[in-house]
Amino acid sequence: MSKRKQPYRFGVPAKYLAGLSDSAARKRAAEIKRTAKKYKAGKKVNIKKVQKSRVADKKKKKKK
């Protein structure tokens, strides 16, 4: 197995969790991993729900 080339936090690349507190980063990482697991298993993913939560998180992040 090759060595990872980028920094990871909570099992996902750190760039996806940039600027988040640890608790918020854990929630985002869990959501990303849940979605990825469903995709890999071929199960249906509610894209609208995922997009809505990610947009809401971005709005919160920009306000700071």
Structural class: mainly alpha
What is the percent of helical residues?
A: 55-70%
How do the strands of the widest beta sheet line up side by side?
1-2
Quaternary form: single chain
Structural domain tally: 1
Largest sheet: 2 strands, antiparallel
- List unreliable stretches of 5+ residues: none
Strand content: 5-15%
Topology, number of strands: 2
Give the CA-based shape: flat
Q: What's the overall average pLDDT, rounded?
A: 86
Radius of gyration: 13 Å
Distance linking N and C termini: 40 Å
Q: What is the tally of helical segments?
A: 2
| SSE string | EEHH
Provide a compact summary of the structure.
This protein is mainly alpha-helical. It has one domain. Strands 1-2 form a two-stranded antiparallel sheet.
Descriptive keywords:
single chain, 64 residues, two-stranded antiparallel sheet, 2 strands, 58% helix, flat
Description of the structure:
A hairpin with a 2-residue loop joins strand 1 (8-9) and strand 2. 58% of the residues lie in helices and 6% in strands. With 64 residues, it is mainly α. The mean pLDDT is 86. It has one domain (8-63).
